[in-house]
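idk why but the lab printer keeps eating my pages so im just putting this in chat instead. protein + zinc ion:
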Amino acid sequence: MKGGGVWHAEQAWLGHRAVDVLIEVDNGLIKSITEGVPAPPGATILKGWTIPGMANVHSHAFQRVLRGRVESGGGDFWDWRKEMYRATEWTAERYLDHCASVFTEMLAAGVTAVGEFHYLHARGNELGASVIAAAKRTGIRVTLLDTCYLHGGVDGRPLEGAQRSFSDGDARRWSARVEELEDGAGVRIAAAIHSVRAVDPASMRVVAAWARNRGAPLHVHLAEQPAEVEQCLVTHGCTPAALLEREGILGDDVTAVHAIHLDERDIALLGRRRVAVCACTTSERDLGDQVGPLGALAAAGSPLTVGSDSNAVIDMLEEARGLELDQRRATGRRVHHQPEALLQAATASGMRSLGWDAGELKAGRLADFVTLHAPGRDLDPGYLVFGLSGRDVINVVVGGKTVVSR
Ligand SMILES: [Zn+2]
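predcted complex ->
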């Protein structure tokens, strides 16, 4: 991911609309951005709207196999989960091919970095290595959020069935295994606490300490379903967010995924600690999850990000507008977030959550940028977020290398 070259964008989003933008890239980084200049000889011309590369903050690549297969019958989130457990057995080779096809689909939709929330540990690090190899093969950046998963409920009950293969046994063995994985070009090793359901307080402290020692991002599923909150109140006498606070987990290096069933104190707490929140609206709709208090979280100080989660849909612009549109239906009011903020969720805030210095077209940042076919009008974040989709992406550059061109 250390490519170089010169690109000339007809229109680009630099935090404001800019025209005739020269992007010079050296050694994978943006060297300079110059507005209002003609294309020099030899520059690669980008017709359309060029924006920073998008970040898919939360993915479980294996769940892509469920697409279209779980839409009949009936049930709730927990019934869906039983179906999902049937898709957790892979060989290293098959998983590499599968992840490569999922990551190719992400790149085609303008995703230049993915956070893979990975808990398929039946073969130790074999499937994690497959995720890394698939990222290298396809050219996407990956933050491997290696996930600690130890228990079958908030009360510490043992794992059952397929869940058993997700576990390292205890948090020390989790960290010893993760230590064997290495950062590399386009690869960051990071940590995840699966949830307060699957990780007890002492173990979550071990995971957080590991992440903080390494300066690595730390992610956690938080309050996706009411049952998690109810069980946490019974076992610990507090909400999941309050439990994470009590154990010293919350901070600006943490991303809480879903964060749906929160009370006012939880919202204030997450905001005060500058915990990022990842909304996965297409998956949450698919699973019958309710709508989280995203407007209140943003107002409290939490940066918002987006992710494709189960990969029922892979389209960060759909996620970004879903973040807003779901709240409109839930509240009966319009425009909780400005379009520029939704675009920031899909780019700069998401990149920060994954530990990449990208998501903005600025000198010194990683040279990730995406061009969308646009309908002959001036670049407008409202039209971009609400009128375009991943299918409008025509060119993708990651670290100064063109990985999609059509
Ligand atoms: Zn998830």
